[in-house]
Amino acid sequence: MAKADIGLWGLAVMGENLVLNMESKGFSVAVFNRTTQRTKDFAAGSAKGKNIIAAYELEDFFASLSRPRKVMIMVKAGEPVDMVIGQLLGYLEEGDVIIDGGNSNFTDTIMRCRQVEEENLLYIGTGVSGGEEGALKGPSIMPGGSRDAYALVEPIFTKIAAQVNGEPCCSYIGDNGAGHYVKMVHNGIEYGDMQLISEAYYLMENALGMDAGQMQRVFAEWNRGDLNSYLIEITADILSKKDPETGRPMVDVILDKAGQKGTGAWTSQNALLLGVATPTIAEAVFARCISAIKEERVAASKELAGPQVKYTGNKEEFVEAIHGALYASKICSYSQGFALMAAAAKEYDWNLDLGRIAMIWRGGCIIRAHFLQRIKDAFDRNGNLTNLLQDEYFKEIVEKAQGNWRKVVATAAESGIAVPAFSSALNYFDSYRAGRLSANMIQAQRDYFGAHTYERVDKEGTFHTEWLKI
User: Fold this and answer.
1) Phi, psi angle pair for 458, to nearest 5°
2) How do strand 163-164 and strand 167-168 relate by DSSP bridges?
3) Nearest of 367, 30, 352 to residue 195 by alpha carbon
4) Half-sphere exposure of 391 (CA within 13 A, CB side)
5) Is 183 a catalytic residue?
6) Nearest Cα to Cα of residue 109 among 122, 126, 95, 97
7) Cα(177)–Cα(348) distance, integer angstroms
8) Catalytic residue among 23, 190, 199, 283
9) pLDDT tens, position by position, for the chain (470 residues)?
10) H helices of 118-168, where?
11) 3-state secondary structure at position 210
């Protein structure tokens, strides 16, 4: 009996689509699901007639795999992953590979990698981005773990990944939890991107009074230029969709409550832990948090008054200003994400190739964009680049956009329109370019009430002042 090249445990939509992707690229796949009926439905449905082996018992699942056996887990992050690993350890043997393809926290992946390797098995924690469509047609794949483990799955992963100019959007990221860490930061950047786009839409709607059709044409035009990306593209598509029940634009009948699964919060928490400023990503997370208290906001809207200013200037010029603000803010958001990865590489002893990571994100994933090639070019120009804002290309873009960027944020403030991501990105830029900030006052306060000491601008050393002495 022919053996499968790889096994996949977990037949939710992402799992099923990855199986179909693998099979379409010439690989045989064995599948197993905790709920037997799910496996039966898959075998009788989209897997029928394909080179897919459906297993209903664990013994049959493992017996159907070629050696060294490779098992990919596609289950909910957290305890379910640990439960599956516990079962796998009873069947797998030295040299076999366990692959966690879910959205696991990178700290869990570090621990699991150690645990599995102690059993003489190999472990990979891999980020898989692109949603259901990406899983089926080609996702961006970010594998971390031992190089020996990656060597065994590389032929499969590079073939099923999205391809851009003949190059796979997949590459070895680094040891233990590096792959899941990079996927986490990808999602944090995704939060920032989505919030910035939603603020651009919100400004057009509320400051300029534009309707869905007018905004659709703007986003479609933007997608043909520097802002070309998957998220801008789908924003234009969303704005063109009508609700079949009411005939209204679909976006107008969707409640303004945004959900989240935690990866944006993880990114912000880790940034705080490492002492790296990622305010735009954090504000994007907070924006979803405040959107969730819909009833409280509705009540507050009846009690709290704000300005009633309407924009009276040239609308086309302001739309162009929003474009500049969006692009500049996007640069700042990505600068924060890449600075965080650079800090994590030092903290966790990973050799992260930031330019290569940008290339992996060019296709398949949610933040795929033409813009990512510019990031790769920046790291090619300077392998020691500490922040994208120091690259000549990005520096020129942001400096050119400054006037419009400030105009947009100021107009939003005067009009009482919340744009936390635009504002935080601008404040990040202004803080980063400042040779002297207000932190000297903070340090003086810390020394005053807690004798925390301070450094001086005019000589080396650490000092303390007895503030209460006359």
Assistant:
1) -110, -5
2) antiparallel
3) 367
4) 23
5) yes
6) 126
7) 9
8) 190
9) 689 999 999 999 999 999 999 999 999 999 999 999 999 999 999 999 999 999 999 999 999 999 999 999 999 999 999 999 999 999 999 999 999 999 999 999 999 999 999 999 999 999 999 989 999 999 999 999 999 999 999 999 999 999 999 999 999 999 999 999 999 999 999 999 999 999 999 999 999 999 999 999 999 999 999 999 999 999 999 999 999 999 999 999 999 999 998 899 999 999 999 999 999 999 999 999 999 999 999 999 999 999 988 889 999 999 999 999 999 999 999 999 999 999 999 999 999 999 999 999 999 999 999 899 999 999 999 999 999 999 999 999 999 999 999 999 999 999 999 999 999 999 999 999 999 999 999 999 999 999 999 999 999 999 999 999 76
10) 131-137, 147-160
11) coil
Comparing C-alpha atoms, which of 281, 292, 324 is closest to residue 195? 281
Cα separation of 68 and 166, whole Å? 29
Q: Which residue has the tokens 């799955």?
A: 153
Is 190 among the residues known to form the active site?
A: yes
Structure tokens at 262: 């935690």
Sign of CA dihedral 373, 368, 157, 155: negative
Length of the chain equals 470
Burial (CB count within 10 angstroms: exposed 0-12, middle 13-18, buried 19+), residue 58? middle
Q: Cβ neighbours of residue 124 under 8 Å, at least 6 residues apart?
A: 97, 98, 99, 100, 143, 144, 145, 146, 149, 150, 153, 179
* Distance separating alpha carbons of residues 191 and 205, to the nearest angstrom: 21
CA angle 420, 181, 326 (to 5 degrees): 30
What residues contact residue 265 under an 8 Å CB cut-off, 6+ apart?
A: 285
pTM metric for this prediction: 0.95
For the residues of 46-113, what is the DSSP string, one character each? Answer: TTTTSSEEE-SSHHHHHHTBPSSPEEEE-S-SSHHHHHHHHHHTTT--TT-EEEE-S---HHHHHHHH
Residue identified by tokens 């057009």 is 204
User: Which residue has tokens 């089926």?
Assistant: 136
CA distance 153 to 143: 10
Out of 16, 23, 70, 183, which one is annotated catalytic? 183
163 and 129 in contact (C-beta within 8 Å)? no
Residue 108 near residue 161, CB atoms below 8 Å:
no
